[in-house]
Write a structure and sequence with these properties.
This protein is of the alpha/beta class. The chain is 27% helix and 25% strand. The protein is globular and about 65 Å long. It starts with a strand and ends with a helix.
Length: 390
C-alpha cells in the first residue's frame, strides 16, 4: 500500500479540493480512499506537506513511442496510400522509448497515442500509460478512436505526388467515399444474417469504420480553422462523433462547435508550433475559456514527441493567463482529457476504485511559474521522484 499524506489534494472529482488531505492506494494499485487523517499499517508513506497532490496528467493527443526524434523515423505514419483505416498505433509503439521517461518526469501518466496525420483516414488510436511492465499491461484501452486528418497534412503528403488528395475537395471526397463504403458494408452484413450468400468478406478497415458509425469510438480528427466546419458537416451527414484535435482557430466558430451534438471534445494545441499559411495561422488559446463556459469538454495536447512533455502544463498556464479559472484549466489535462479519450472510468481523478496514478507538485501548476513535478506514481507505484533523481 501507498499513503500520500498532508497534501493539498485536487481530486478533480466530487470531493473537489481538500486541504491537508491524504490519498491511500491499495496493493492492487487502485485508490482505496481520499480523506483526512488516514492511516494504514505497513504502507509506504510519502509526506506531501506543502505540496499539491493531483491525478496523473492525461495527454489526449500524442505520438510518443512511434516517432523517433533522433533518427526521424515515423513508424506511426503509413504514407503509402491516403486511407489506411485497418492499421493501429499499438503495433508501432516502442514501450522503451525515452519519451515515456520524459513524460513521467513531467507528470504525464497516460497518453492517447495516435497514428500520424499524413493520411485522410489514418488508423486506430490507443491509450497507454507512461510506465509499467509490458506494453499490453500498460494499455488502458485499444482502440479509443479512429484517427483521421483534414487539410494541410494529407494535402502536403499526396499533393507533391500529384495524387489525391491534393486539395480540400479531395480530402472531403475521400472521407465520404470511405464512410459510404462502411455504410454499404454494414448493410450487407445485416442482409447476410438471413442470407449467408451475400455476407461480405470481413474487412478490418471497414470494421473500424463500423465502430465509428455505431458510436462505439469517435473519429479523432486533425483539423484547423474552417476545416473544422467541413468536419462537422461530415459528422452530421454520417452521424458519427468527433474530437477536434489541434483546433487552432476555434474562436471563429463558437456557436457551431458548442451546438453540434457530435462534438465529443476539443483537444487544443500545441502552442509553440511554427505557424504556416492557410488553416494553421491562428493561435487563440483564449477560446478554451469560452468553449468551456459553453459546455464543451476541452483538453490540451503535447503532440509529443514533436513538443516536450512539460509543455502540457505550460500551455495550461497560458489558458489561465488568457482568463480561464485555474481549476477548470487543470481539468483539461486530467479528467476532461480522460473523458474525451474514453478512459475516465480509470484515470483523470482521485476517486476510490480508480487507478492509483498521482503526481505531486511543488507549487500550483499552471499558476506558479516555478511549479514543478516532484513525484510520479503509476498504479500505486512510485516510478519517479525528484529526490531519487538527485
Amino acid at each position: 500500500m501507498l499513503l500520500i499524506k498532508n497534501g493539498k489534494v485536487l481530486t478533480m472529482g466530487p470531493q473537489g479540493v481538500l486541504e491537508n488531505a491524504d490519498v491511500l492506494i491499495g496493493d492492487d494499485g487502485k485508490i482505496m480512499t481520499v480523506g483526512m487523517n488516514l492511516t494504514a499499517e505497513g504502507a509506504q508513506v510519502i509526506d506531501a506537506s506543502g505540496k499539491v497532490v493531483m491525478p496523473g496528467l492525461v495527454d489526449a493527443h500524442s505520438h510518443i513511442g512511434g516517432f523517433d526524434t533522433d533518427s526521424g523515423v515515423q513508424d506511426l505514419n503509413e504514407l503509402t496510400r491516403p486511407t489506411t483505416p485497418e492499421i493501429q498505433a499499438y503495433d508501432a509503439i516502442n514501450p522503451l522509448d525515452r519519451s515515456f521517461t520524459e513524460a513521467i518526469r513531467a507528470g504525464i501518466t497516460t497518453s492517447a497515442i495516435t497514428p500520424g496525420s499524413g493520411n485522410v483516414i489514418c488508423g486506430l488510436a490507443c491509450a497507454v500509460k507512461s510506465g509499467g511492465h509490458s506494453l499490453a499491461s500498460r494499455t488502458l484501452r485499444n482502440p479509443i478512436a479512429l484517427k483521421a486528418a483534414m487539410g494541410v497534412n494529407p494535402k502536403g503528403v499526396y499533393g507533391p505526388r500529384t495524387a489525391m488528395p491534393m486539395s480540400r475537395l479531395g480530402v472531403a471526397d475521400l472521407f465520404r467515399d470511405y464512410f459510404l463504403k462502411v455504410r454499404d458494408y454494414m448493410k450487407k452484413k445485416e442482409e447476410g444474417k438471413s442470407n449467408p450468400e451475400v455476407m461480405p468478406k470481413r474487412d478490418p478497415g471497414l470494421e473500424n469504420g463500423v465502430l465509428v458509425l455505431e458510436k462505439k469510438i469517435p473519429l479523432k480528427v486533425h483539423c484547423y480553422q474552417h476545416d473544422m466546419m467541413s468536419l462537422l458537416q461530415l459528422a452530421d451527414e454520417f452521424d458519427f462523433d468527433v474530437t477536434l484535435d489541434h483546433a487552432l482557430g476555434a474562436s471563429d466558430f463558437y456557436d457551431e462547435i458548442a451546438e453540434n451534438p457530435h462534438v465529443r471534445g476539443v483537444i487544443y494545441g500545441p502552442l509553440g508550433a511554427p505557424l504556416f499559411g492557410g488553416e494553421g495561422c491562428k493561435l487563440d488559446i483564449e477560446c478554451l475559456a469560452e468553449l468551456d463556459r459553453r459546455g464543451v469538454c476541452c483538453a490540451i495536447m503535447t503532440d509529443g514527441p514533436c513538443f516536450v512533455p512539460y509543455m502540457i502544463v505550460t500551455q495550461t498556464g497560458e489558458a489561465v493567463r488568457a482568463g480561464m479559472d485555474e481549476l477548470r484549466a487543470l481539468r483539461m489535462i486530467t479528467i476532461n482529457a480522460a473523458r474525451i479519450i474514453g478512459c475516465d472510468d480509470r484515470v483523470g481523478s482521485l476517486e476510490p476504485g480508480k487507478d492509483g496514478d498521482v503526481v505531486i507538485f511543488q507549487g500550483m501548476p499552471a499558476v506558479d511559474t516555478e511549479a514543478r513535478n516532484t513525484a510520479t506514481i503509476i498504479d500505486g507505484r512510485l516510478v519517479w521522484s525528484e529526490n531519487a533523481a538527485e
